[in-house]
Write a structure and sequence with these properties.
- It is a single chain.
- With 209 residues, the protein is an alpha+beta fold.
- The protein has 2 domains: 65 residues, no CATH class; 106 residues, no CATH class.
- The chain is built from 8 helices and 7 strands.
- It has a 4-stranded mixed sheet with strand order 4-2-7-6, with helices on one face. A 3-stranded antiparallel sheet has the order 3-1-5, with no helix packed on it.
- Helix 4 runs parallel beside helix 7.
- The longest helix is centred in the middle third of the chain and has 20 residues.
- The protein is elongated, with a radius of gyration of 22 Å.
């Protein structure tokens, strides 16, 4: 099934897709919410049960394609990275030389840390959806590591010698490690990140804000 117009994938109605697939068929989502697609970009691939041999009809193709909402802007409903990037953009603008507002950037890190904590505590992302007559496989969705890479690490990369921001980052990450350790969750990525932040702080001889 191919995109009928260019734009961002805003929503994927998996239940609706399962409802229109023929009995015994298997579908695979080839894009995820937040992806930008051009006309004719493949949105989903469908394998029919041998008893339904033959090409998919135009009507079924339209029904499958209608399960994908495509628009001119991204939305956060099924695209958490987009919401994360909006916070990061605020932090990066605050760190710019023209604005130079490290206090706002430090505040952004607290909000990003809260979202990162929720991502680490969340259940594993569901990747197989089973309906009454068909099933659909979904691509990997953003997980905790992606939230960390697109969020706190993005602020870290632009923090350079901003001591107050680096201190806020280090405190938040250390708190995350402590909280997640209480639940016996893997914190190796966070611990490595904390070491990087600590190392940068220790390398600053003449901090400037």
């Amino acid at each position: 099934m191919r995109a009928f117009k260019p734009g961002f994938v805003q929503d994927i109605d998996v239940d609706g897709l399962l409802g229109v697939l023929p009995p015994g068929s298997i579908g695979r989502l080839d894009v995820r919410a937040g992806s930008y697609v051009w006309i004719d970009k493949i949105l989903a691939t469908v394998w029919l049960d041998p008893s339904h041999a033959g090409n998919l009809g135009d009507e079924l193709s339209r029904e499958v394609a209608s399960s994908f909402a495509i628009g001119d802007i991204r939305t956060i409903d099924q695209d958490p990275i987009y919401g994360l990037q909006q916070l990061v953009d605020i932090g990066l603008r605050a760190l710019s030389s023209g604005i130079n507002d490290p206090a706002t950037a430090a505040d952004v890190t607290h909000h990003l840390a809260r979202l990162t904590l929720a991502a680490y505590r969340a259940e594993p992302t569901r990747r197989v959806f089973v309906g009454e007559h068909a099933q659909v496989f979904a691509p990997h969705r953003p997980g905790a590591r992606e939230m960390l890479n697109h969020g706190l690490k993005a602020i870290f990369r632009d923090s350079t010698d901003r001591v107050s921001v680096l201190c806020a980052l280090l405190a938040d990450v250390e708190d995350l490690v402590a909280l997640l350790n209480e639940s016996n969750l893997d914190t190796s990525d966070l611990e490595e990140f904390a070491r990087s932040v600590r190392s940068r702080l220790e390398s600053i001889d003449d901090p400037a804000e």
